[in-house]
Amino acid sequence: MTDLTPTPQQPGLHVAKPAKDFPAHGSYACRCGATDRARGDDNVRDLVAVWIDHRNTCPHR
């Protein structure tokens, strides 16, 4: 399986939660170079909201 971590060359959002009792983790990358990572269910939920906002406003989508 290939690495699913987003990069500016392969932009996107990746979120994983290996099991119910483990914390979620996620990361995003945009073509413009913006990147971020988070660990923990609440932090990942916030990361997704930031990604959606960035995706909707970034001219490099």
Which labels suit this protein?
61 residues; alpha+beta; three-stranded antiparallel β-sheet
What's the short story on this structure?
28% of the residues lie in helices and 25% in strands. By secondary structure, it is of the alpha+beta class.
- How many domain modules? 1
Helix content: 25-40%
Question: What's the Cα radius of gyration?
Answer: 12 Å
The string of secondary-structure elements, in order, is EEEH
Task: Please provide a written account of the structure.
The chain is an alpha+beta fold and 61 residues long. The protein has one domain (12-57). The chain is built from one helix and three strands; from the N terminus they run βββα. It is globular, with a radius of gyration of 12 Å. The model has no long low-confidence stretch (mean pLDDT 91).
Layout of strands and helices, then pairs:
Elements: E1 12-16, E2 25-29, E3 35-39, H1 41-57
Antiparallel strand pairs: 1-2, 2-3
